[in-house]
Amino acid sequence: MPKISFEAEDGVTIVADFYDSQKKKAALLLHMMPATKESWVDFARALTKAGISALAIDLRGHGESVESKSGKLDFKKFSDEQHKDSIKDVEAAIKWLREEKGIREIYVAGASIGANLALQCLTLHPEIKKAVLLSAGFNYRGVETKPLAERTALDQKVFLAAGTSDSNCAEVADKLSDLIQGMSSVKIYETESHGTDLFQVDPSLIGKLIEWLKE
Fold first, then answer.
1. Which domain holds residue 210?
2. CATH code assigned at 104
């Protein structure tokens, strides 16, 4: 799988892995914190086998996405405002998929703060019809989800998964499901595992998500 890079609008270089299915569908994958694009490897490979390309990015300040015009970035030193700027990485990734790969049918999946960003992405892109949220929160570093859920469109669908012993993530999943304007599905696990770690709790979750994306 080739490693690629592109620039966000504010000059941050985003590094990503692109898993090419040779089809014109793709999923944008947004990791949790602290984690990197590699946390999506198993899901990305399964997506590719199912005919859906995958673009897993390192969000700014994580992994290899540490270069900017103002110097090195480290997410551990970010303010909430700097974390909120990660949506610019998401926007740049969507632009790359469209302009460099000609992909028009895009899905987005996120874990933890990546889930919150994925929901924000839906509100900014009504043409994106499906999102997967693993362990979303009401407010991760300033990215608040209740108002975002209320701004989703009627034809957008969201799949939420969370663990009962993972802070209040199960409560968040249920509440966001109620607020989402379109159809939503919720899967709750008896676990404290968070984000992409849910794939270890239920290895079949990957297949379930892919089946849901392809419906």
1. 3-214
2. 3.40.50.1820
